[in-house]
Structures are given as C-alpha cells and as structure tokens.
C-alpha cells in the first residue's frame, strides 16, 4: 500500500464539512496510512454541518509533528473553530516549517492564514475566503487543486478526487 507505515493527521472541529472529512479519512486509510483524528481535545465527539460525527483520537497540543508525514484540514465552518485553538494553529505552522504535507480544502484556508504560512504562496480555496487569503499574502487562483511545494489546496467537495490524488502522491514522495 502506498502510504503503509506513514502517520497522517486529519483535523476536526464542530461543523466540519462531511465530505471533506469523510472522503480524505477513508482514502488515507485505504492507502495504508495510520490516521490520527486531531481536535483541540482528545476523545471529543464533533458534529458536522449535517449531523455526522467524528471523534478526535488526539489533542493537537499532545502531538509531535516530526512523527507525521502530513496533515489534511477539512473545510466547513470547522476551520473557524480550529483557528481559535493555539495548539492547532501551531501544529499547522510547525508541519510547514518541517516541510511536511499540509493540505487544506474549502474554508480550511483560514487555518493557513492564521498559521501565517501564506506569504508568497499560491493557493486556492472556496471563493468566499479569497480576500482573507490574499490579505494573508497568498497568490490566490481559481483551480481544482493547487500544489505549492507540499502545500496542497482545493476549492470545494467537487474537487476531492483531484485533491486526494495530489495529497496521496505528495505523502508517498515524502
């Protein structure tokens, strides 16, 4: 399996987008990765926008970024809650500093802005947060998936197949 032996995080918080959490979660499992569901606290059950639930297996403050190959951040309204937790924001920044894969879809670009990792980077997102990312120093483009080194971004659930192909390929190279 392509990612056998690799550890990957997926972040979760209240009001996550169901598709943007479920699709990456199971796609990563399918490739053989060990997936850690990361929240502000461990053992918390979070509800999606439509009521699906996901339970965090670890708290961001308790993780060592050096042990992971990368991170996927789903969208929905969850990134607005995620970025209120300093440990979750720090995790994104530290993974970026270690040149690990950081993948964000839809509104997850808010986490990239809060982590202050966008200066001079080319990204995409849901169109409604375009200005936020530009103000954070990013070059925003309207594309299905954008890879700027190991920073991978996509716009909406419709982009999930291309997004996850790029994420899995980047994690396999790393």
List keywords for this structure.
single chain, seven-stranded mixed sheet, alpha/beta, 174 residues, 32% helix, Rossmann fold, two-stranded antiparallel ribbon
Structure description:
With 174 residues, the protein is α/β, with parallel strands linked by helices. It has one domain: Rossmann fold, CATH 3.40.50. The chain is built from six helices and eleven strands. Strand 3 (45-47) and strand 4 (53-55) form a beta hairpin. 50% of the residues are buried. The model has no long low-confidence stretch (mean pLDDT 98).
In short:
The chain is built from 6 helices and 11 strands.
What is the topology?
Blueprint: E1 7-11, H1 18-30, E2 34-39, E3 45-47, E4 53-55, E5 58-59, E6 70-73, H2 78-82, H3 86-97, E7 101-105, H4 109-114, E8 122-123, H5 130-135, E9 139-140, E10 145-148, E11 151-154, H6 160-173
């Amino acid at each position: 399996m392509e990612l056998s032996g690799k550890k990957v995080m997926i972040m979760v918080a209240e009001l996550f987008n169901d598709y943007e959490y479920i699709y990456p979660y199971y796609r990563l499992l399918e490739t053989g990765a060990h997936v850690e569901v990361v929240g502000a606290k461990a053992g918390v059950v979070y509800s999606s926008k439509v009521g699906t639930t996901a339970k965090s297996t670890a708290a961001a403050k308790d993780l060592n970024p050096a042990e992971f190959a990368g991170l996927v951040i789903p969208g929905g309204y969850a990134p607005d809650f995620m970025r209120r937790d300093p440990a979750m924001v720090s995790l994104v920044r530290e993974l970026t500093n270690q040149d690990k894969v950081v993948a964000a879809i839809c509104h997850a670009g808010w986490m990239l802005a809060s982590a202050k990792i966008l200066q001079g980077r080319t990204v995409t997102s849901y169109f409604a947060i375009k200005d936020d990312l530009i103000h954070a120093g990013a070059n925003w483009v309207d594309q299905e998936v954008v890879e700027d080194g190991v920073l991978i971004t996509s716009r909406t659930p419709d982009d999930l197949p291309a997004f996850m192909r790029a994420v899995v390929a980047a994690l396999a190279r790393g």
